Amino acid sequence: MATEFFTEAVDDSNTAHGQVSLVLDTQDTPWLAYTTPSGDVMLARRGETEWEHERLPTEQAALDDYRIGLGIDSALNPHVAYQSRATDHLIYGVRGAQWSFEEVPTSAGLFPDRIRFPSMTVNLGVFSEPPFKDRPHFAYQSGLSLWHATKAPPKTDPNKPPTWKKNVRPVDSTNAAEKGWFPKLTFDRRDEILRIVYSDDLTPAGQPERRLRVATMIPGTDFPGQPDSWNIQLLHGGQISAQCPAMEHFITGESVVSYFDGVGRTLNVCIFGNFPESPAVEVVTDDVDEDSRHSACGVEFERSRTCVLYGFGGRLRFAMRTGPGTYSLEDVEAGGAWSDLRFDSVGTAHVAHIAAGTLRYGVAETT
Question: pLDDT digit string (tens) for 296-312?
Fold first, then answer.
């Protein structure tokens, strides 16, 4: 049975460039961040009768293959992060009574440095102590390595003010390969464990070989010799070019990643976790466009079904996993650029994408 989508325009001013991020707050209200052609960062929230729009009072974002980082904390305060167009520094902002912006000291927590591929999430902290709830977490590439940053108080003295110092560290350092291409970080829904999915770049004989990897945080303490550490796992190696991954988690602890393979020219899914076949790589479709590499994946929790949203041929497409290695594919509407997907607490799918300069949003109940 086909999924019935109900869609609408969020911004039909013909000034939606892309870099779309869709999140749902704790009340299942959708929020969207995106950019204009000049790099202005925009924020939209679904009100009771219409969309509320806001142009953020900050510098312009670099127009590249990076989504604007967006998170909504438990007090319904929006957090954003992006790469500065002028400096390539990582800019972070949060709105309480008003907006506050700062450059993240991305070099060991001491001073800002040039970065690539910024990503952000906000830890709502269901199991965390109050000082560590609602903290932003960042992943990015700097010095050809993958880094993680957060702003939090010392674990040994949670009553102290949050700081970047000692909370900015490399995750996977460059050696024979660049690390940290296209990182995406999320907390799993069962144990609140932070994971970063990303690619490295071996470039043997001038031919890109970007393997898909995942880093799982192993929390440490602030005592000497016990910092946070990371377990690195190869998800998909060989002659592939894994690009623009998205990640979501099952309530049972497994994780799913969707990504574009630039060598095989396929949209893939990798499911990994505590089961014998892990990691399991499946091809969703070979109907993919180089210009629509940004897929999104989600898990419909009631039936634990994996879904993927992507663009092809100027259309937004929706795929649902119906069995091992098999997917049903549905056409939604014109558009498909910068596709993003979230499932809310009752199993409704929320989607967003760009269609010819218009930012669009929709909902559908999967059956």
Answer: 999 987 778 999 999 99
